Amino acid sequence: MKSKFDFKKFRPVGIFLAILAALLIYAYGFQVTKVNLEETRSEKRQTQLVRIIRALAKPDLITYDYQETEATFRIRIPCPPEGFQPTLPKEGAPYLKMTPACANPKDTITVEGENFPPNASGPLYFIPPSEVTLSLGTIQTDSAGHFSMTVKLPDRPAEEDQYIRALVKVPSGVPRASAALIDTWDKIVETVFLALLATTLGTLLAVPLSFFAARNLMKDVTSPFISVALYILLIPLGILAGAQIARWAISLRLLLGITLWVDGIGIIVLPLALLFLFRWSVPQTDEQKPSWKLRIARALALLLAYFLGVLTLSFVSNILIEAGNFIQPALGSFGFIGKFVRDCGDILGMILTILSALVGGGVLLNIANRFGEYAIRHFSFSANRLLNLIIGTVSGAGLAVMLMAGIDWLYQFDNRWISLYFPAGIGGLLGLLMALRFKPRDKVGIGMVVYFISRTIFNALRSIEALIMVIVFVVWVGIGPFAGVLALSLHTIAALAKLYSEQVESILPGPIEAVKATGANRLQTIVYAVIPQIVPPYISFTMYRWDINVRMSTIIGFAGGGGIGFLLIQNINLLNYRAASVQMIAIALVVASMDYLSSKLRENMV
Amino acid sequence: MLEVNNLTKIYDGGVQALHNVSFSVPRGQFLAVIGLSGSGKSTLLRCINRLIEPTAGTITWKGVDITNASEEEMRQIRRKIGMIFQHFNLVNRSSVLTNVLAGRLGYVNPAYSLINRFPEKDIQKAMLELERVGIADKAKNRADELSGGQQQRVGIARAMMQDPEMVLADEPVASLDPVLAHSIMQYLQKINEDYGATVLCSLHFLDLVHRYADRVIALNAGELVFDGLPGEIDDTKFKEIYGRDAERVG
To answer: What are the structural domains, with CATH classification, of chain A?
Structure first.
């Protein structure tokens, strides 16, 4: 047996070295972060700091109507050779008096005032012929309305008359909310709704996406090689076909004309026809396997029903837009409801094509899967081998060309060799190699591929702060809260999808097993065994995210994303710290109350 | 008739759970599967409805090769095979009725079941099955509000919803007390006798085997070590099945 190295003996040395290393790290940290203690003690900085802290402590919350009392006094600098006679004060009115009556520049004089409002303050100005006022200081009247102040005259000699003016402000009337407070209220409402929309949008998209990033759901998803190769070819085709169906439906609606009459019929008759077709083509139970003829007829009926469905939705979208336009002026100050209705119609119209494209892709995916499963069971080994090789090559080429088309779009090579022939050749070769590697009956773990791709995308998106994303969206939709909504939504999707998928991974496997054993298909298993288990954590995480989004939305305005941050950064840049203080208080209040609210809600939910 | 030929399962980690297991079960038999924990009983039952993919070997049932069935065919096969689990495997947050209705998922059209719509006759059947196991009054309760024995009855009702021609019961009474164990076993016996369903039931207690099973197979470390009548298990056989140091408790 080898002699064991005695770690215990060298332990103190190890500790000493660790401390030394830690010291080095911190020393370098001080160097890198430019720790400057001189600066913290410098008097100039300290007075600035005190000024700002005092301004922050006096948030610009309320404002009054002011009654201003003003008195002006004519002076000469320097004293004219012929002598100078100051204006005589009027009896009872506020007046100023200077001793001596005239002086040289930079002389120290005394300014006195009488008959001003008592216990008030205001600025004292020097007004040269250019009328650009110079502040001489702040005056403070005593209980008799008198003040006296020693002032150093500015270096402004002139042949003409110059003036000294005192301005005393006395608040009058009831206090009201300051402009800063009103703006802050507007913006804080905007902020909260920004967070709400971003959370809603993010959650809606993150929920379905999270299933793709859950290992326990995806690891059993396998397909024959033929199916995988067909996915690559058929899914894009399905997407195009689905989008084309939506486009046909929309142009058919346009062809029918946009009158209320047609719309009305469209929205009543179409769904009925749709329902009838759907009922016929999708029976509630299928005890026996239906015949081929019946299945084809059902598929065609379902296709027609689908077209009618898209058409109906297109009508609904149009009606919403029309209705929104109609009620917006009619509702007066609630016109935003009309705008919302119109926007909903618009959104429906926009996502109709996308949804239809997704459905198309999904249908062809299903067909590809079924074909592959059928082929490996019913075709001979060599026929499968041949199919594998052909489809593998074609789909490899297709995938490479599609990827290259994306790269070409970015870099604009404008060369058919680079964008078409080379990738097709190389992709085809790789596809062929892959086809050779997989035996026909081998299953490809396509689920794990999807899992890794979606995890990678979520992690990448999560690592980019919403504050940075918003810069891109500002370019797209302009500065304002909408850009903030989009940026926060995107970040929310990535963050929530990750959190959700981890919850899916931690559910009990037993119920899934049991539901699968009844003959349920994959989607049914998710609905009956997975979803009931994940509802509480999903709600809890959504609340948590809503909390984070409120926090984020308060600063997303720093980068142009709207909300209160936009106002805050403006006021800070204008050195308007008293207004900035109002916004800071508002942020603190909103964040703290949302924090409290969401934690209470989460407690009650789970 | 269920035929299992040279069934072998090797898990990803290299653990051999089943090794060349062959046996056949005639229709309507009550077959007990015994063996130590980890001897491969659960794996065997799960291979039959392919919750676990066998590594090699074939399983044929009613002339259909289960091991070679496509996903769509598996759906048709699985819906005729009810399964009952040791830990009941109910969806805790769903109602008892929903848990029972889940037994119909292999029959109903996925498009409707996704929005939780079942045909009226399925709901009636679910209530009937719950009545048969004596917990119709709990239909609206959440599954996790029920006691263990009641939960296993829900599990039985769920299996019965499938109109099963075969029932796989994976230690259905291992987490229940002896009184409950007998009542659950009696339900299984009823399914076997009244509906003519083949039952494959893994069990730990030999007295249950003697009382309910027509025939016994025993597994030890993934190999079939006994195939015969319950009465044939004498002390020598017992030691072969459970190992030299084992002691009989029942």
So the answer is: 63-177 (2.60.40), 179-218+450-606 (1.10.3720.10)
